[in-house]
Design goal:
Chain lengths: 620, 463
């Protein structure tokens, strides 16, 4: 028995575990994090990038709250791109290619140097409870670690096995040891365990690829950092390229001819896979009429020749893999260094959790990350920081931090998984966020910095910096709201230079900004009293003025949404007393026990009519 | 609506006013207990427990002093086969406000609570007997003043509006899905809907929705009647016209007590269209003093009307006041009546043809019953003929649905505007989703926090 008493124990040191442990320790609680192998801290066992559509938003939000992912990728990126720039500012999304090894090293370094945080290599096999309350954990060597709260972040390690063809390896990702004991322990606690699967493509030797047959994809010239702590200037560096190639009929034919040898189609894999991140077999079967699929070739780091074949994860046998990869232009002679495989693992249905990520039936037990049935590093980190914060809040006896759907993608993500559950690994998508015009990646700090400060994750200094930025934005908007231009030659010359029609009477500056062909920056030659402001501030001013009408309409929608969210459902509600409620609806409500009527309305299988009944009941 | 469902409610279910009989409806757990306290059976051997469900029983009501209040028939209907799915009793007593109120008071003294408007139907809904759209249709059926109104509500009860709305929503959803896919998979070169296609589709949807809206006005007219005002100078024959119209439709005349307005309304059925003729400060009165309605007053009445009947004296010349009123009402549905053609006809009425088409200028003699047929035809043409197939299109007849459709139209207009301003896709989907939501309010697919109150507060008492 370890004689130390901990506040918070984090089980697992992937992207969720790291954020959870750092949050808890930074808030000031005595924290320990366990990993099965310390060389796997913040390991990226699949794609070599962070961010992308909607996932980039999550990273920015984690950063705004005071998390580590944004800073860590800023330190270790080897290419960065802003995607979706042809679309609106709400869906711009930042994505960076990571140097995987450096990403791990830098995160480990950060963790090792945080006060209050211990890092231990060991497998945790049991969660100890007393009276449905967490008291500690037990390691494989029989050591007991006492604590007040536990955050489960086991990712894909629980009873994991990797499969390709008829090869089955009892291991976690990347050949790392699986974790065995905890599944049974959790079942004993009344937690329901599910089985999901996911997969990863092969890594091939850079020297065996003919890049001349592929389309090069360079990074952006203008670098946008993930972290609000950084500026473009201080993270400037040389970027490496990715490459685009395509599958073809030959590829598809090989796959079709060998489907029976895939454990997925042969029936060996029982777990449910992600629809949004399908294996190449899935793509060929499901989109049979598609002639070709895009495949991206991405470097895994600067100090390695391994290249990641994005878009071609597979569980086909190795000989088929080699044959199929070699049908792609540029990969004709490719040599596989690590083959593709599917991984199957134990996870939970997150409807067993509250919005705080604490288990409904066990006090002090929190759960975050891929173990909750999600997929993706960013989704994991987003849950990790909330799990860590709320474990800390629980220990401190303070209310949990819950972000709602109108405040953050993190809120959407957590609300979705704890409300609807998931029959497949959950992936964040822009379309899941109803109020995304407000949830932009550029304003994550305006939305969440204050919350991060309040829970104790954002330092005084950073918070002051943020307040200063916020004030400058507000002041500038106030100033330009009262600026008007006369129909002078000078003004019209500027307008016409951007293809905008000249004005005949005076025009308000805010009205001109709203014109499609103009923006805040373009008007600077005629806006004489303008101060020299940073890009971030100018961008906020422009977006907030230019899209004012849309933002206001979205705010109205949020108002409607909040009305139903504000209708709280009492803890002790007896659903059997509600007349007219269908039995199925009653069972679902009983199982999820939603916190508000709005929350209830998002449970799958609950119809609007059921909600109406609930509303009537609550009104009486 | 902070009432619980466990108590027993009662109300007079027949229209207030003089009538042969009135019905007091009681619903709830204690309905029979209350009856047993006040009802004395004709057949002495029976008591309330022995009475079979769904029978009608004759006897008298007595108050606590043993005095007979009324001679009545009482129907007993045991749960769950009743309108509310609760124990229900209905007392058929003598009509008239006083008699019915006396019985209602007796029932309330003995443990029932006064029902709120629509509460019986609300219970039917809460107890799972009818769904929300049916509840709404029930309300419209009750309030139907004409056969058309009744038919339109029935159509809705059958789900015609729902299926139309569902069609529109599906189209919106398809567009949204395409846009969302393009946003979620920025690097994938899958085909997507072009702006032009989204714009055209939105315009088409907008057309459909605007048609619904246009018919919504007809729908409202079908349901509530045409608010009609008779204008004209003193002594042109306004009061005779009104009286003659009432004469024409004696069977359907009803007095609607001015609950919200300070004027009386007469409801007249003209070839299936209900005209609510607003009795502008008592135009039926023959006293000149009251009938002196100035231009300003006319304007006020005309403002809120769906139809203006402007009466001129055919034996008199047009004057400035006439023109002033005509100027003001020219954009309304206007019928100009040149009355008193039995007298010497003044030919100098060319000017009025600037304000209405031939078909809507009626030469009449109210006194000699000349021209009524032409007037009715004009009214019919104005509100129904050809333009609108009421059976097919007039699905929206209440304000709640109309507001939702109008919201959807506004959102689609925003979509078109966004595309015209060449803003990016995500601005489009925001308004598309809003349109989808607004339409969903009609069918109950979008949950609104105050929907229950919105619907049931419109109900009439006793249903």
């Amino acid at each position: 028995m370890n004689t130390d008493n901990y506040d918070v124990i984090v089980v697992g040191a992937g992207h969720a575990g790291c954020e959870a442990a750092l949050a808890s320790a930074r808030i000031g609680l005595k924290t320990v994090i366990f990993a099965i192998n310390l060389d796997s801290i913040a390991m990226m066992p699949c794609n070599p990038n962070i961010g992308g559509s909607s996932k980039g938003h999550l990273v920015k939000e984690v950063d705004a709250l005071g998390g580590e992912m944004g800073r860590n990728i800023d330190k270790t990126y080897i290419q960065t791109r802003m995607l979706n720039t042809s679309k609106g500012p709400a869906v711009y999304s930042l994505r960076a290619q990571a140097d995987k090894a450096k990403y791990h090293t830098e995160m480990k370094k950060t963790m090792e140097n945080i006060e209050n945080l211990e890092i231990i290599q060991a497998e945790i096999t049991d969660i100890l409870t007393d009276n449905n309350t967490v008291t500690g954990v037990l390691s494989e060597s029989g050591m007991i670690y006492k604590c007040k709260a536990v955050v489960l972040c086991m990712g894909t390690y629980l009873k994991a096995r990797c499969l390709y063809g008829d090869t089955i390896i009892q291991s976690g990702p990347n050949g790392l040891r699986q974790a065995v004991g905890l599944s049974e322990s959790l079942k004993r606690l009344g937690i329901k365990i599910y089985r999901f699967k996911t997969g990863t493509p092969a890594r091939v030797d850079k020297r065996s690829i003919d890049f001349s047959k592929m389309k090069e994809q360079k990074g952006d010239e203008t670098i946008v950092p993930f972290s609000f702590d950084n500026s473009a200037e201080n993270i400037q560096r040389e970027q490496v390229s990715c490459y685009l190639t395509y599958t073809n009929e030959k590829t598809h034919e090989i796959i079709r001819n060998n489907l029976s040898r895939s454990p997925l189609y042969g029936g060996v894999i029982k777990g449910t896979g992600p629809r949004y991140c399908p294996s190449i077999e899935d793509k060929v079967v499901r989109f049979a009429d598609k002639q070709r699929h895009q495949i991206f070739i991405e470097p895994e780091g600067e100090d390695t020749n391994e290249m990641y074949i994005q878009g071609m994860s597979s569980s086909l046998p190795l000989d088929v893999q080699i044959e199929m990869y070699r049908t792609l232009p540029g990969l004709e002679n490719c040599r596989i260094m690590r083959n593709a495989y599917a991984i199957e693992y134990d996870c939970i249905d997150a409807t067993q959790l509250k919005l705080s990520l604490e288990f409904k039936n066990i006090k002090g037990l929190f759960s975050a990350g891929q173990f909750n049935g999600t997929s993706g590093y960013e989704e994991a980190a987003a849950q990790g920081i909330i799990g860590g914060i709320n474990a800390a809040m629980y220990v401190k006896g303070e209310p949990p931090l819950i972000l709602d759907r109108s405040e953050a993608y993190i809120g959407v993500l957590i609300d979705d998984i704890v409300t609807k559950g998931s029959s497949e690994p959950y992936r964040m998508m822009t379309s899941r966020a109803e109020y995304r015009l407000l949830l932009r990646q550029d304003n994550a700090d305006l939305r969440l910095r204050e919350k991060g400060y309040k829970v104790g994750l954002v330092s005084e200094e950073k918070y002051k910096k943020f307040l200063d930025k916020k004030k400058k934005i507000e002041d500038e908007i106030k100033r330009i709201s009262s600026v008007s231009f006369p129909p002078s030659e000078e003004v019209n010359a500027v307008l016409m230079s951007f293809g905008s029609s000249p004005i005949e009477n005076g025009a308000k500056m805010t009205d001109l900004i709203k014109r499609t062909e103009l923006d805040y920056d373009k008007l600077s030659p005629i806006d004489k009293n303008r101060e020299n402001l940073s890009y971030e501030i100018r961008q906020q001013v422009n977006i907030q003025i230019k899209y004012e009408g849309y933002i206001n309409r979205q705010l109205k929608q949020v108002e409607q949404f909040k009305k139903l969210e504000a209708k709280l459902i009492p803890d002790n509600i007896d659903y059997s007393k509600i007349m007219g409620l269908r039995i199925e609806a009653r069972q679902k409500l009983e199982a999820i026990r939603p916190e508000s009527v709005g929350h209830a309305s998002r449970i799958s299988g609950i119809s609007p009519a059921d909600i109406t009944m609930l509303l009537v009941y609550l009104n009486m | 609506m902070n009432n619980n469902l466990n108590d027993t409610i009662a109300a007079i279910s027949t229209p207030i006013g003089s009538g042969g009989i009135a019905i007091i409806r009681i619903s709830g757990e204690d309905a029979f207990k209350i009856i047993s306290k006040i009802f004395v059976y004709n057949k002495k051997e029976k008591n309330s427990e022995q009475i079979k469900s769904h029978t009608i029983n004759y006897g008298v009501l007595k108050d606590k002093n043993g005095e007979i209040v009324d001679e009545v028939l009482v129907s007993f209907m045991k749960a769950p086969n009743t309108y509310t799915k609760e124990n229900t009793a209905e007392i058929n007593c003598h009509g008239g406000i006083r008699a019915a109120n006396r019985v209602l008071s007796l029932v309330i003294e003995n443990g029932a609570r006064m029902a709120q408007p629509g509460e019986f139907t609300k219970r039917a809904f809460l107890n799972g007997r009818i769904d929300l759209s049916q509840a709404e249709a029930v309300m419209d059926i009750i309030n139907a003043k004409t056969q058309l109104a009744h038919k339109s509500a029935l159509e809705r009860l059958n789900g015609r509006l729902s299926s139309k709305v569902k069609l529109l929503r599906d189209e919106i959803l398809t567009m949204t899905a395409h846009i969302e896919a393009a946003i979620d998979y920025p690097e994938h070169d899958d085909e997507m809907m072009t702006y032009e296609m989204i714009k055209n589709k939105s315009l088409k949807l907008l057309e459909d929705i605007k048609l619904l809206l246009k018919y919504a006005d007809t729908g409202k007219i079908i349901r509530q009647g045409v608010n009609t005002v008779i204008l004209g100078k003193p002594n042109v024959g306004k009061s005779s016209l009104l009286n003659a119209l009432i004469e024409e439709d004696r069977a359907i005349v009803t007095d609607i007590p001015g609950t919200t307005r300070d004027v009386l309304q007469e409801s007249i059925n003209i070839n299936g269209i209900a005209l609510n003729i607003i009795d502008t400060a008592g135009i039926r009165s023959t006293t000149d003093a009251i009938e002196k309605m100035g231009v300003e007053k006319s304007k006020q009445y005309a403002k809120n009307s769906d139809l203006v009947l402007f009466v001129l004296d055919g034996s008199q010349s047009l004057d400035d006041d006439d023109i002033k009123i005509l100027e003001f009402v020219k954009d309304k549905n206007l019928i100009i009546i040149i009355n008193k053609i039995d007298l010497t006809e003044n030919t100098d009425f060319d000017k009025v043809y600037n304000y209405a088409d031939d078909d809507y200028i009626i030469k009449m003699s109210v006194k000699n019953e000349i021209g009524f047929e032409k007037l009715f035809k004009a009214i019919e043409k104005l509100f129904t003929s050809g333009k609108i197939n009421i059976n097919e299109e007039a699905l929206i007849t209440n304000e709640r649905n109309k507001a939702s459709v109008a919201d959807a139209a506004r959102s689609l207009e925003n979509v078109v505007e966004t595309i015209e301003n060449m803003l990016p896709e995500d601005f489009i989907s925001m308004d598309l989703i809003q349109a989808y939501k607004s339409l969903g309010e009609i069918t109950g697919d979008s949950v609104e926090e105050d929907i229950i109150d919105k619907i049931f507060s419109e109900f009439c008492l006793g249903k």
